[in-house]
Amino acid sequence: METEMSHEESFIVDWQDMGEEAPIRPFVALRMRGRNMGLYRVKAVGGKRMLLDQRDSRLPVGTQLEVGDVQGLIPNLPSSLVAQVVASDRSGLSLAW
Fold first, then answer.
1. At a CB cut-off of 8 Å and minimum separation 6, what does 10 contact?
2. Which of 8, 30, 69, 89 could bond 37 through an S-S bridge, CB–CB 3.0 to 4.6 Å?
3. How deeply is 60 buried, as exposed, middle or buried, from its count of CB atoms within 10 A (0-12, 13-18, 19+)?
4. 50, 15 Cβ separation under 8 angstroms
5. Sign of the C-alpha dihedral, residues 78, 70, 33, 47?
6. For position 42, what pLDDT does the model report?
7. Residue 14: exposed, middle, or buried by beta-carbon count in 10 A (0-12, 13-18, 19+)?
8. Angle, CA of 34, 48 and 76, to the nearest 5°
């Protein structure tokens, strides 16, 4: 029993001391009609477009969303902006503003 406990403790210490930092994946907060939709991982940002991981629900093209740029991913824009869904498919949720 003591050997098992030592092994478990060793494993936890080894995991914590890997010396590698977990990469920070960019995300944005979405709201629709004043209601929180949650945090969505950002796959790509370019120009006035953004591609997000899709999740379970598909939003219709033309849906207006408020995008909260909590990490400052979009330079020279406010921390919150209104965007429109321009595509929603297997590649992700594409927004434009």
1. none
2. 30
3. exposed
4. no
5. positive
6. 92
7. exposed
8. 85
The DSSP annotation for the chain comes to -HHHHHHHHHHHHHHHTS--PPPPPPEEEEEETTEEEEEEEEEEEETTEEEE---S--PPTT-EEEEE-TT--STTS-SEEEEEEEEEETTEEEEE-
Q: What is the pLDDT of residues 4-21, one digit of tens each?
A: 444 444 444 444 445 555
What residue type is 50 in one-letter code? M
Amino acid at 79: S
